[in-house]
Give the backbone structure.
Amino acid sequence: MTQQQTANEPGTVGVDVGGTFVVTDGAHRFGDRVAVVTGAAGGIGQAVAERFVAEGATVYALDLHQDRLDATWAAVPQVTTIAVDVGDSAQVRAAFDRVRTEQGRVDALVTAAGISDAPWRSDPAIGGSPEPESIDDDAWDLVIRVNLTGTFYCVRAALPLIREAGARGGAVVTISSVGALAPYPLPAAYPASKAGVLGMTRAIAALVGKENIRINAVAPAATRTDMLPKDEALLDSMVQLQPIPRVVPASEMAATIVYLCTQEAQFITGQTINVNGGMVM
């Protein structure tokens, strides 16, 4: 793709990716690289995939909803979409088998697929309360399956393909949350799942570091995605806990995540990168 300047901000250099202008400041760090991004039909995952494309990567965009994948990526030839439930090990294995067949390796994996709660609990007629006694077994199991088990399935499937990249190794970035580290009044399954991602990330980092494979976690604060609380009062109370009191655009979060996949970050592993406006220091 050709780097260009935007007319809205003269001097800003970036790339148009399917109608979204991605600011890159001229960086092109992923030519001849293959990246897999889960949760890529929206939110942080979409912004990460856009950044990878803008910097030259071939991208496999995974998400539960094929229709949303098509709507997001149909006009971007560098992106191959695969509908997959990350909480289903057979579907994850099949998705990465396809990547192996078509590309032979993976250079970077970002596990951005996630849910904040069971969808049926968002119905006002049912509840959605964060109180532990309001969380039914199925709601708990679903959040853990998608956020924690699904992250593990994807990392497990990607590691053999990252090894195929050879001595240059590769990188994995898992997505946790400031909710795993700070006392947000959230339904407990979400922070529990995201705290589990941190422990898993550190354990795997210790195992694969000698192979030049790096794995780090990013713990975002409030990011402008569909997962933000709809209650504006709650959202404002969360943001005001941050020394930098604002909601972050997904593109800004993506810049940090993608940086962790570059050669510039090749001595960083097993870390939790807190991108949260200073809420956790």
About this structure: The CA atoms of residues 40 and 46 lie 4 Å apart. Residues 137-163 form the longest helix (27 residues).
